[in-house]
Specification:
heterotrimer, A alpha/beta, B mainly alpha, C mainly alpha, B: mainly alpha, about 75% helix, C: mainly alpha, two-stranded antiparallel sheet, 12 helices
């Protein structure tokens, strides 16, 4: 009896939740982790795509209403494939912005190819995400695109920067054992060693770790005297590393260099003043310095005053805009035509000019190095 | 309800309905549920496996997903080395069994929660080792597998094929479980779970039987892992986190420890609920999915502490 | 470098120990793993942040304000733990040993997602309670924060020791831990003592949460999980149910992690593997943990 009562309570709660506004609209799916450990990053991407879609609706770009439909993959590959199946079974979904993790994007892409429906990833940087389409086992057309560059672009640029601009000869390498972080760090190593530098130590940490003092103490007292650290990973760990580095007395000119996963205002929340002087690379030109991105930065702030932008938000915004542009050219919400048009993309936007190569990757190889300034919570580009 | 469960044709009717499900769902335009059903099936296999350790022998295991991971990675590595898919599955089962037996030989003298934390530790050791041994496992970047489409004469949709394959594995697992449950071995396990000392004094070789239950579990996990790898054609360490172990424990306990029907229902509820919410909840509520999940977990436990479908033997003990 | 690493290990160990105490107190009395403890820890940190934001004049600076923020967050976390016990565990107490575990997991999921949905989906900056100075001792850099953390943790452990060993309530707690039914026959109200135990355990968890926020400078909805799992391991290492064991286990784990990351090549990524391997070896040699008593039990 009581059990039935409990189930009834749950059923009512669910029914209440399920009764959303039911209207037929054309959807752009946002398939990212909305809950779980990576929920923070996914929520940012969801906001970015919502912003893009709202702007398009306000400008009456389409004769129908467009919505950003959120799907939660929880950064779990199995749920990502579930979500991909759900998305492809909904004929109103025209294309997908997602997924966030390479581990999710890789298997989900296989589902999108069967439908087929286009997937434009704003964050998955493992080369395999697009490269798998070259495999003889690939079933379906090429549907994967990404506006974020693969790891080699930023890693090698940062290596050159460390050697040439900063004159570093010995660096310590750190990464978070994720496809993104490790990939970035490996490319940095390749570039740095090729340029005659030496990687004195190499360590992996785990996403979610908080205490790096032991590791940093080891780096500090390394007899081969590293002149800086390159970190492949995201801003939470980057911020903690910076904070603990400074606490241990590893200050300028000891350099901290990282990639776009760390270049976000969240870094200042985690590291505080310790973020000062950190070098962070970003693909294209930083949003704050690009006239075409200025509007995005301001609009985001105005639309979501309580939320700060996350590292990949502008990529999400760009992905949505590229999809919408393709849909315009395709003359309507047609999945197959949108894929065709995406291939012909030449988009001027937040990231500068985006063109996709044969694999589906962005051809943009421009990387800018920035330096964090804690006082004004900004990243100034270094020339 | 009780009568329905005891009816001798119930399992067959359920199996027939489950087998017809992909074709029904195609008719009502709900193919998404075939994918969800397949995932539920994988966790049914995992639950049936853990049921030997936790449900029958009463050994608390918080790192069971390690053997799912070992099965998945064995399959992936074997298939990439050119081993045919069915052989890779067998290999996955064998490797999981071997590692599980070795682990059991080492740690089974630990009791209760000490065993729980050691198995939890092993789960993390397994995941981290997979993530760190880049040369063998390609580390965090994961491994791709060539497709294996065993039932293409039935349907061209891989989801339907794997759904049916997994369903067959679930059916086989249920059959094996119920045969074992009613055997001498099964009765020995229950005697150990209820009172280890009394069981020992009655002449049951306790350590031997515990090891047997502990080891058999891994065959299920290894098989589920292998099927998962072949279905997704991709394995990555992100799939085998601690949370998944907790989920399998919850399936067994919430369903009803030591009850085969309970485990199946437990998997149906706990694994089916989040994807159904994903489907049915409107965008505004999507963030609430796991809040509701937690609520269901607490409410069901409070109102059915002995599990949704406890085994008749356990229920008799608890109500007397 | 060794001295520096020992200081690092000491700070980490102190936090683990405080959390481990919460697990071990509850376990000692109910033999259940309070899976929601990691969320109590997280809520403690969020309460401290809320207090600091609400009353910056009172809690913003100075050691007195800091102590006030501490005490209130501890009380709040303790209270939350009592409420969890009352509604999610007590109805299940006599029914089965694993049912409370599942409802604890459920509570943990609810609390984490509740904070995620209603408070913040992102990392929040945790204010620096005092200006951080660095002192150099024998070549090691020690921050005033590390000293505060260590002092606070040791003080709390001292208070707990006094409470358990030298007060009447502490005696009642020990009696319940030994044998709850007999204690009930001796005129102790077990419900009351269990609630008290959850309060004390939760308060220590809350304190650990505040220290955690201070030490790492930012807090997030999921901050409890990792230290919770580590501290639980520490409690088992020391012998779960044993108060001294929890402290010992916490410090050992802290040192183990520091030594693994600091001295073993590639140690940071193998750190947890090393820690868990040591745990397994210790338990094989001493199946009830370092200071645990041998007990027969069943699941």
């Amino acid at each position: 009896m009581t059990f039935r009562k409990a189930l009834a309570v749950a059923a009512v709660a669910l029914a209440a939740a399920a009764c959303g506004p039911k209207e037929k609209a054309i959807k752009i799916a946002v398939a990212v982790p909305l809950t779980g450990d990576m929920g923070t990053e996914g929520q940012g991407l969801r906001r970015a795509v919502e912003l893009a879609v709202e702007e398009a609706n306000a400008a009456k770009r389409f004769p129908f209403k467009l919505v950003a439909a959120p799907y939660d993959d929880r950064a779990d590959p199995k749920e990502a494939v579930n979500v991909a199946n759900l998305i492809t079974s909904d004929p109103n979904v025209i294309a997908v912005v997602g997924h966030y993790n390479s581990g999710c994007a890789t298997p989900a892409a296989k589902v999108y190819a069967r439908a087929p429906v286009a997937m434009v990833s704003p964050a998955a940087t493992n080369p395999e995400v697009t490269a798998q389409q070259d495999s003889k086992d690939w079933m379906g057309p090429r549907v994967v695109f990404r506006v974020v560059p693969t790891d080699d672009v930023q890693g090698s640029y940062a290596a050159m920067f460390a050697a040439k601009k900063l004159g570093k000869k010995r660096m310590a390498l750190l990464h978070d054992k994720s496809p993104y972080g490790q990939g970035l760090a490996e490319e940095f190593k390749k570039g740095f060693v090729a340029g005659g530098g030496k990687i004195v130590s190499e360590d992996g940490i785990s996403v979610g770790d908080k205490d790096f003092k032991a590791l940093l103490t080891k780096i500090k007292s390394d007899p081969s005297k590293p002149e800086g650290v390159y970190f492949g990973g995201l801003y939470t760990e980057a911020g903690l590393l910076l904070k603990q580095m400074r606490e241990l007395g590893l200050k300028d000119p000891f350099a901290f260099i990282s990639g776009d996963g760390s270049m976000t205002f969240g870094l200042f929340d985690v590291a505080g003043d310790a973020a000062d002087g950190a070098y962070l690379s970003i693909v294209g030109v930083p949003a704050d310095e690009l006239p075409s991105a200025k509007k995005f930065v301001d609009d985001y702030k105005a639309r979501f005053p309580n939320d700060e932008r996350k590292p990949f938000d502008h990529f999400g915004y760009e992905a949505a805009n590229i999809i919408m542009a393709a849909m315009e050219r395709a003359g309507g919400p047609d999945r197959a035509k949108v894929i065709e048009e995406l291939r012909k993309t030449k988009h001027e936007g937040v990231l500068g000019t985006t063109v996709f190569d044969g694999k589906g990757d962005t051809t943009s190889k421009i990387v800018t190095m920035t330096r964090a300034v804690a006082k004004k919570r900004a990243f100034d580009s270094v020339r | 309800m009780k009568k329905l469960l005891d009816w001798r044709w119930t399992p067959w009717v359920a199996l027939a309905l489950a087998a017809a499900f992909p074709f029904i769902s195609a008719a009502i335009d709900a193919q998404y549920l075939v994918r969800v059903g397949g995932v539920i099936g994988l966790f049914m296999i995992l639950g049936l496996g853990l049921n030997f350790t936790l449900g029958y022998a009463g050994l608390f295991d918080l790192g069971f997903i390690a053997f799912y991971a070992i099965g998945a990675y064995t399959t992936a590595i074997a298939m990439r080395a050119g081993v045919p898919a069915p052989a890779a599955l067998i290999l996955a089962v064998l490797v999981s069994l071997t590692i599980r037996a070795l682990l059991g030989l080492t740690i089974l003298r630990l009791r209760g929660d000490y065993l729980a934390v050691v198995t939890m530790g092993f789960g993390e050791i397994a995941r981290l080792t997979i993530n760190n041994l880049d040369a063998l496992t390609n580390g965090p970047k994961g491994l791709q597998l060539a497709p294996w489409r065993p039932l293409s004469f039935i349907s061209s949709d891989p989801n339907v094929q794997y759904y049916l394959l997994i369903l067959a594995a679930v059916a086989a697992g249920v059959a094996a479980s119920s045969r074992l449950e009613d055997s001498r071995v099964g009765r020995a396990w229950i005697a150990i779970r209820e009172d280890e000392i009394a069981a020992r004094l009655s002449g049951i070789p306790v350590r031997h039987y515990k090891l047997l239950a502990f080891t058999i579990s891994a065959a299920f996990a290894g098989l589920a892992g292998g099927l998962f790898a072949q279905w997704e054609q991709f394995v990555t360490p992100e799939s085998f986190v601690f949370w998944e172990s907790i989920l399998v424990v919850s399936i067994v306990v919430l369903g009803g420890m030591g009850s085969i029907a309970g485990v199946l229902v437990g998997a149906l509820v706990l694994v089916g609920f989040p994807p159904i919410m994903q489907w049915k909840l409107s965008a505004d509520w999507i963030n609430y999915r796991y809040l509701f999940f937690g609520l269901i977990l607490v409410l069901v436990t409070l109102f059915r502490p002995q599990g949704i479908l406890p085994s008749s033997r356990r229920e008799a003990e608890l109500t007397s | 470098m060794l001295i520096q690493q020992l200081v690092n290990g000491l700070t980490l160990g102190a936090i683990y120990s405080l959390i481990a105490l919460g697990y071990t107190l509850v376990y000692g009395i109910l033999t259940m793993i309070n899976f929601a403890h990691s969320e109590v820890l997280m809520l403690g940190a969020f309460m401290a942040l809320g207090l600091a934001a609400l009353l910056p004049a009172v809690f913003g600076t100075g050691l007195v304000g800091l102590a006030g923020m501490f005490v209130l967050s501890m009380a709040g976390a303790g209270l939350i733990n009592v409420i969890i016990e009352r509604f999610a565990y007590r109805p299940l107490r006599h029914i089965s040993r694993l049912a409370p575990l599942i409802s604890a997991i459920g509570v943990s999921i609810i609390l984490q997602n509740g904070v995620f949905i209603w408070i913040s989906t992102q990392s929040l900056r945790f204010p620096e309670p005092v200006a951080i100075d660095q002192v150099n001792v024998l070549g090691a850099t020690i921050s005033s924060l590390q000293i505060i953390i260590l002092a606070a943790a040791l003080l709390l452990m001292g208070i707990l020791h006094f409470f358990v060993e030298h007060t009447k309530l502490g005696k009642a707690m020990r009696a319940c831990s030994d044998d709850i039914q007999t204690a009930g026959l001796m005129g102790i109200n077990p419900d009351y003592i269990i609630a008290l135990t959850f309060f004390v355990g939760g308060a220590l968890g809350g304190a650990a949460g505040v220290l955690y926020g201070m030490n790492y400078g930012s807090i997030k909805y999921n901050l409890g999980f990792l230290p919770g799992a580590k501290a639980f391991t520490a409690a088992v290492l020391g012998g779960i149910g044993n108060i001294r064991g929890a402290v010992l286990g916490g410090f050992i784990l802290g040192f183990l992690e520091v030594l693994a990351s600091g001295y073993i090549p590639n140690g940071a990524q193998w750190r947890d593997v090393i820690a868990f391997t040591v745990l397994i070896i210790v338990l094989l040699v001493r199946p009830s943990g370092l200071l645990g008593e041998k007990i027969a039990e069943k699941v």
